[in-house]
Amino acid sequence: MMRNSQILLILACLLTLPWAVNASTSAAPVAQRVIQHGFPTQPRALANTTEALFTEYHQNHNALSLVFYAYGVLRQADHFMTVNDVIRASEYAKTGFFYLDEAVERHEDNLQVRYLRARLDAWLAADLGRCVITLKDTAELLNHAQAFNAPLVKRIEGMRYRALLNCHYPQQADALLAQIKSQDPGATAAWVSDRAPEWDMNEVTQVMLPLLKGK
């Protein structure tokens, strides 16, 4: 069963995206609304949106709908932990991670899906053991760095740094952090913080919107 602190760290890593994205009408309107407005904060509305994302995925097989479904389930896990319903919190957390991994397995050649998994996992508590997955994901992403712009490559390097720390590879982590500092001294604050940085427009335009359009 997951500890309270582990569940509560999930919330800081999940989407709150008040972007006014002018995406064209898509086959994934629920996922599009999440990009535009973020997830609902009220438990009932959150549950409804999360269920709608699951239905949407089965209708259109859009990978973003499935990833957002996993994110929504994990937000519900956080809610149950805040009201001390530890059993349901643990069940929802397991379900959320299952479908997050399922999204990558079903779309294993899609770098954007892999990015979204790493983005969440990188700021989770070390004892959840997700760092091993993040190391694999970030290695794959950096092997295809040409698919991303420079700010996103830096973010991937930061996620890898956190995974190295959480998996107890301090020498490799220090070497990577030194490399990041040499390129951009001001970029390291986000990587050493235990709070995930806010989602930025690069992530919306290079990761989420291509998935929304089915690319």
Automatic annotation (TrEMBL):
Keywords: Signal
Residues of the signal peptide: 1-23
Protein name from the UniProt record: Sel1 repeat family protein
Organism of this sequence: Izhakiella capsodis
Phylogenetic classification of the source organism: Bacteria, Pseudomonadati, Pseudomonadota, Gammaproteobacteria, Enterobacterales
